[in-house]
């Protein structure tokens, strides 16, 4: 994410030179980290071998750290008890990633340093890098050897977790729901090549049918329809970004995911007794020329839901 932002001088530090900044990927992870940070608890368990419950109490710490020459913005910092956990989301390979992580972790450690018997103790956070694309030859850890002037040598290691290493089954089994929006990147090359390979297309669509089915199963046992609507919304956001316009896969995937949003959101509305009223309002607004996006914003519903309603009513989409 956007790591350095200097107000007075141009900083040519490592984070400022980061290439290939993918705003949409960062936006999705930022949404998870800021609005649904509890989704990161299973990720912490997976990486660090902990066994925190999903309802584990935690503190979401601010991710801005001020230095002499500027500001560092990290992706996510969570405190559980005395432990600090720092997660960075990365879409592309970066040869300087370990140096960036040292930079971030040092800023975090200094900010949370404390005096003990006249000596300042600086504890580094437990950190990891989440790669959302599938990169060949990625090590299990990023590592750097640090030599101090007095001869001490410390090896700094940061574990790496690869989102695309997980199957749909394992994602749900381990509750790694934060990885679901990035599933589309498994098919990125195929989608952007506009390949006519029907088997690959059906494999991708089956993947998302399975995701929808498992979300529905979870919804039947948990009162969290809003969460699953948000997750599917993020899935749709990245799919819309990755799949080129004109590729038939975009419409077919939209039908699968849009239908699931409609189903989950409708259940929530039915409980409130507002479903029919919302559908009628949407229909009337569409007839008066309001765009799908305008209707969605006013009713606080996903555009895919409004589009599905419009199709059912025979209105233009």
Structure commentary:
With 317 residues, the protein is α+β, with helices and mostly antiparallel strands. It has helices at 23-35, 40-48, 97-111, 168-173, 188-192, 198-221, 225-242, 248-272, 275-287, 292-299, 303-312, and strands at 59-60, 64-67, 70-73, 76-80, 83-90, 114-116, 119-121, 126-131, 141-147, 153-162. The chain folds into 2 domains: 15-164, Trna Endonuclease, Chain: A, domain 1 (3-Layer(aba) Sandwich); 167-272. The longest helix has 25 residues, at 248-272.
Radius of gyration over all CA atoms, rounded: 22 Å
SS summary, helix count:
11
Portion of residues in helices?
A: 40-55%
- The CATH architecture name of the largest domain reads 3-Layer(aba) Sandwich
Biggest sheet character:
6 strands, mixed
What is the averaged pLDDT score? 82
Shape: elongated
Q: What class would the helix/strand composition place it in?
A: alpha+beta
Q: Total strand count, please?
A: 10
* SSE string, helices as H and strands as E: HHEEEEEHEEEEEHHHHHHHH
Strand content range: 15-25%
Integer tally of domains: 2
Give a summary of the structure in a few sentences.
The chain is built from eleven helices and ten strands. It has 317 residues and is an alpha+beta fold.
């Amino acid at each position: 994410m956007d790591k350095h932002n200097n107000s007075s001088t141009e900083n040519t530090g490592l984070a400022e030179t980061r290439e290939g900044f993918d705003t949409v990927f960062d936006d999705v992870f930022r949404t998870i980290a800021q609005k649904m940070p509890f989704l990161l608890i299973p990720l912490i368990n997976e990486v660090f071998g902990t066994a925190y419950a999903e309802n584990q109490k935690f503190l979401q710490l601010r991710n801005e750290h001020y230095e002499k020459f500027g500001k560092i913005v990290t992706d996510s910092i969570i405190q559980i008890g005395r432990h600090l956990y720092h997660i960075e989301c990365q879409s592309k390979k970066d040869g300087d990633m370990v140096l960036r992580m040292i930079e971030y972790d040092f800023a975090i450690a200094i900010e949370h340093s404390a005096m003990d018997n006249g000596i300042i103790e600086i504890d580094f956070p437990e950190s990891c890098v989440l790669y959302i694309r599938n990169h060949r030859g990625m090590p299990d850890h990023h590592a750097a050897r640090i030599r101090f002037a007095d001869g001490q040598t410390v090896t700094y290691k940061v574990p790496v977790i690869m989102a695309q290493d997980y199957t749909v089954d394992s994602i749900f089994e381990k509750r790694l729901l934060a990885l679901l929006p990035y599933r589309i990147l498994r098919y990125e090359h195929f989608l952007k090549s506009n390949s006519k390979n029907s088997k690959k297309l059906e494999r991708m669509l089956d993947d998302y049918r399975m995701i929808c089915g498992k979300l529905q199963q979870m919804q039947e046992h948990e009162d969290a329809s809003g969460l699953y609507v948000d997750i599917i919304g993020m899935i749709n956001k990245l799919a819309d970004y990755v799949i080129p316009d004109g590729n038939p896969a975009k419409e077919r995937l939209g039908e699968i995911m849009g239908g699931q949003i409609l189903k989950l959101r409708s259940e929530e509305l039915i409980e409130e007794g507002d479903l029919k009223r919302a559908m009628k309002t949407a229909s009337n607004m569409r007839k008066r020329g309001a765009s799908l996006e305008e209707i969605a914003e006013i009713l606080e519903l996903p555009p895919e839901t409004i589009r599905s309603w419009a199709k059912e009513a025979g209105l233009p989409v």
